[in-house]
Design goal:
It is a single chain. The protein is elongated. The protein is of the alpha+beta class. Helices cover 27% and strands 28% of the residues. It has one domain: Alpha-Beta Plaits (2-Layer Sandwich), CATH 3.30.70. The mean pLDDT is 92. A 4-stranded antiparallel sheet has the order 2-3-1-4.
Length: 85
């Protein structure tokens, strides 16, 4: 499985519905939300086979606006190899 950061921007008026749908889909515990700070967006880390699978954690009403990024954690050796750290 690959690991992805999923970003789910939404309008303030859709906030409750988006959060309810994410909960109903079983992914609420993967996400954190900026809504109470006035940034109507959720961010979550999920594991999936591919980008399309990760995108399926997003409610259909905002799925086309979602950003899905495959992420990798680097150990110190890999960090040095790639970025000279």
């Amino acid at each position: 499985m690959k690991r992805f950061l999923v970003e789910t921007p939404h309008k303030a008026e859709d906030c409750q519905m988006v959060i309810r749908e994410v909960h109903a889909m079983g992914y609420l515990h993967y996400f954190e939300w900026g809504c109470e700070s006035g940034i109507h967006c959720g961010w979550g880390f999920v594991e999936a086979e591919n980008e399309q699978g990760a995108q399926m954690t997003v409610p259909s009403i905002v799925r086309s606006e979602a950003r899905v990024v495959e992420v990798t954690k680097f150990g110190s050796a890999k960090g040095r190899e790639i970025h000279g750290v």
